[in-house]
Amino acid sequence: xxxxxxxxxxxxxxxxxxxxxxxxxxxxxFALTIQDHKFQPAELHVPANRKLKLVITNRDASAxxxxxxxxxxxxxxxxxxxxxxxIGPLAPGRYPFFGEFHQKTAQGVVIAE
Length: 113
Fold this sequence. Notes:
Layout: H1 4-26, E1 28-35, E2 38-40, E3 43-46, E4 52-58, E5 64-68, E6 73-77, E7 82-87, E8 93-99, E9 107-112
Parallel strand pairs: 1-4, 3-9
Antiparallel strand pairs: 1-2, 4-7, 5-6, 5-8, 8-9
């Protein structure tokens, strides 16, 4: 018969795996890249009605600000760095965003389907 500490450790390990799994499944991860003062992809298709994790990586040598009035978000992305923002749950539709510092070229849209 296993000792009580061993059983407790197995139970805690199982609980830890369940917590990590639920944390991973709680949010969908999506990525945007800023390069040459443009967002890539320019159209980001995401599932509707779910909370989403958006990781934005800036590959340019200057900062850019992700801004979206429709998503009610703005965040400066330093050069060579990544930032994370959470959006949603979003109703089906189009949610435009832009780069505050390069508005002519840094344009995009989140499309919730």
